[in-house]
Design a protein that fits this description.
heterodimer; A: about 400 residues; alpha+beta; FAD/NAD(P)-binding domain; D-Amino Acid Oxidase, Chain A, domain 2; 2 domains; 8-stranded mixed beta sheet; 10 helices; 19 strands; about 25% strand; globular; B: about 80 residues; mainly beta; Folate-binding fold; 4-stranded antiparallel beta sheet; two-stranded antiparallel sheet; 6 strands; elongated
Chain lengths: ~400, ~80
């Protein structure tokens, strides 16, 4: 482990060229993963990733690093399972220690209705390749000894689905490994480069205007989360995206081991333990559409209250830090990937609260789309035109908060 | 910091959790096809990074709607003042 830690990542920075085959707007996980897979899988290296701040400084640095594939609809299970598998091999592939930690995820049910939903989740997961099984309260207690199965008398735990593929990884290490891998193969990453507009030739997008000059592009991919709305507007495109803040916080060090990820759909919170031993908690979205990353006390209060209902030991801990990410929410709680109907302009957005886990698969599939000019079968259902075709992928119950 | 809104009907400064959000849908005039207009109204958003005008339902108080101007860059309420 130490040999990984001690070896620092080496970035090769370069000056912008006047044009690239592919320009990716947004140097977060998805943008860099797309560049990485373009370079490694398809040998396309005349690629630039433009980032207005620093790489991984947006939502890639403002999430809760949950990796899982226990979704409720076949399309999503298949896609996220691909991502779970890519994550499992990513350390070896990039030769970087990403602190990938497979710990399993308990998704609790507090009512008969909830138990039925979790049974159905286990079934659909198993059918499409994800490893999930339904577990009874006694097994839950074995996996997570700290839990109060009575839920303080109010939220009894009647069952859960246990997703053994559930994992976490270190967010900035993932971003850095992908950036390094891409840059080593000739991809340019430009930080502090703000894209201010799209350059069009007739109906086709042929480049981007930036605060460092115009950069031509064969293909422009927006991987900017909710900020895509403004870019899309310039392409004459309306998007079903609304940005909401999502808060999370960590406590001080908890001496004992908290083995699994734990999540309750009814109580709307989830808990995991970080590598430092801190307890990490998150809950639901803020109700107001906003780009503000302010964090507030009411959230900590309500989230802690709910978490303590099931995990009484948390009451002895103190809150250390909190942060807020900006979730680009789609109406059906599924991502939007692929072509837009505007030539030369692709989007990967709608990553809401489920972006981190999808970084490798999202990048791999978008890279394939850019390289082959054909939408891969895995992400075809997530196209933007699904709303017009009445083929939405509603999966709120699985992607609610993390 | 967290958002508080002022309800001018029941004259109370209340936390955001007392309110329910209501977007004012704006379908662009450039869309003329009724089907496209329905699609836009149903799904699409301006997602403005800047000043927005929106409606909030005073659920914890008087059950009436208020109109709020807010800057989504920093969640500052511009009017009504709190």
């Amino acid at each position: 482990m130490n040999e990984y830690v001690e070896r620092k990542v080496t970035f090769t920075w370069s000056e912008p060229r006047s044009s690239y085959d592919v320009v990716i707007v947004g140097g977060g996980g998805h943008g860099l993963a797309t560049a990485y897979y373009l370079a490694t899988r398809h040998g396309i290296t005349n690629v630039a990733v433009l980032e207005r701040g620093y790489i991984g400084g947006g939502n890639s640095g403002r999430n809760t690093t949950v990796i899982r594939s226990n979704y409720g609809i076949p399309e999503a299970v298949r896609f996220y399972q691909r991502s779970v598998e890519l994550y499992e091999g990513l350390e070896e592939e990039t030769d970087r220690f990403l602190m990938h930690d497979k710990k399993g995820l308990l998704w609790l049910a507090h009512t008969e209705m909830g138990a039925r939903a979790e049974r159905a989740r286990a079934e659909v997961n198993t059918a499409f390749g994800a490893k999930t099984e339904y577990v009874e309260p006694a097994q839950i207690k074995e996996i997570c000894p700290q839990i109060d199965l009575t839920g303080n008398g109010k939220w009894p735990v009647v069952g859960a689905s246990y997703h053994s593929g559930g994992a976490t990884a270190r967010h900035d290490r993932v971003v850095w490994a992908l950036a390094e891998g891409a840059m080593n193969r000739g991809v340019h990453v430009h930080q502090r480069t703000t894209v201010t507009g799209l350059v069009k030739d007739g109906e086709r997008v042929v480049g981007v205007a930036t605060d460092r000059g115009t950069i031509g592009a064969g293909t422009v991919l927006s991987a900017t989360g909710g900020w895509v709305t403004r870019l899309a507007e310039m392409a004459g495109l309306r998007l079903p995206i609304r940005s909401h803040p999502l808060q999370a916080f960590v406590t001080n060090h908890y001496e004992l081991q908290f083995p699994s990820l734990l999540s309750s759909g009814d109580l709307l919170f989830y808990v995991s333990q970080t590598a430092r031993g801190e307890m990490l908690m998150g809950a639901e979205l803020d109700p107001q559409p906003s780009y503000s990353t302010r964090a507030g006390h009411p959230f900590i209060q309500s989230c802690a209250q709910r978490a303590i209902t099931l995990l009484p030991f948390l009451r002895d801990l103190r809150v250390l830090r909190q942060w807020t990410g900006i979730c680009d929410m789609s109406p059906d709680y599924s991502p939007i990937m692929g072509t837009t109907g505007v030539d030369g302009f692709l989007v990967t957005t709608g990553w809401g609260t489920w972006g981190f886990k999808a970084i490798p698969a999202g990048g791999e599939q978008m890279a394939e789309l850019i390289a082959t000019d054909e939408t891969p079968e895995l992400i075809a259902p997530f196209s933007l035109d699904r709303f017009a075709r009445d083929r939405t992928l509603a999966d709120r119950g699985s992607s609610g908060t993390h | 910091m967290s958002l508080t809104l002022y309800c001018h009907h029941c004259r109370g400064k209340r936390p955001l959790s007392d309110f329910v959000y209501g977007e004012i849908p704006k379908v662009p005039d450039s869309l003329t096809d009724p089907v496209e207009r329905d699609l836009d109204r149903g799904f699409m958003h301006d997602n403005v990074e800047g000043v927005v005008v929106e409606r909030w339902f005073c659920h914890g108080g008087c059950h009436r709607w208020i109109t709020v101007r807010r800057d989504t860059r920093n969640d500052t309420v511009l009017s009504p003042e709190t």
